[in-house]
Design a protein that fits this description.
The structure is a single chain. This protein is of the alpha/beta class. The chain has one domain. 30% of the residues lie in helices and 20% in strands. It has 4 helices and 6 strands; from the N terminus they run ααβββααβββ. The chain has a 6-stranded mixed beta sheet with strand order 3-2-1-5-6-4, covered by helices on one side. A hairpin with a 5-residue loop joins strand 5 and strand 6.
Length: 169
């Protein structure tokens, strides 16, 4: 009986670990993957990415910012996959781990950063946030695809109540 219990525990652990290892492509519906890949090809090493799911529909927005100035450059919308909620829950969990007490849920952050309305393009100097901006190498957590010697080549915004702390992707 004990070996069966051990086997079931190991299987459950493996399923949990696999569930927490979703990639950004897993959040995009398969019909939009080719377009998403083409969009991501435009991302340079100095860009910052803000990927989020709109609350009122099944759409994922990917905003692209210049990493040096944090100025908005472009946005793209993609259809969300069935795994999108799990992917964003995984990001929120990683943000909690990295940011600790500075963590705020994404909907709260977006409201704070946009001055009350859901307009993620009104960030930075417009609201006096430039001095609180962190750059790609500062406060950058490392994912499994990042190696410490190469640094943080691309980052995704993970929150911190408008401090632009980022997660390396």
């Amino acid at each position: 009986m004990r070996p069966l219990l051990t086997l079931l525990t190991m299987a459950a652990s493996l399923c949990f670990v696999a569930a927490l290892d979703l990639k950004d492509r897993d959040a995009i519906h398969e019909d939009d993957l080719a377009r998403y890949d083409a969009y991501m090809e435009t991302v340079q090493g100095s860009h910052a990415i803000d990927m989020y799911m709109e609350d009122d529909n099944n759409v994922i927005k990917v905003d692209l910012y210049d990493g040096a100035t944090d100025t908005f450059e472009q946005t793209a919308s993609f259809k969300a996959s069935a795994q999108a909620p799990e992917y964003f829950a995984q990001l929120e969990q990683r943000a909690r781990e990295v940011l600790g007490s500075d963590y705020a849920p994404q909907s709260t952050k977006r409201s704070i950063c946009s001055g009350g309305g859901p307009n993620p393009h009104k960030r930075g100097a417009v609201f006096g946030l430039e001095e609180r901006v962190s750059r790609c190498y500062q406060f950058c957590g490392y994912g499994s695809s990042c190696s410490v010697p190469s640094g943080c080549t691309r980052c995704r915004y993970v929150g911190g109540a408008c401090t632009w702390q980022k997660w390396c992707i």
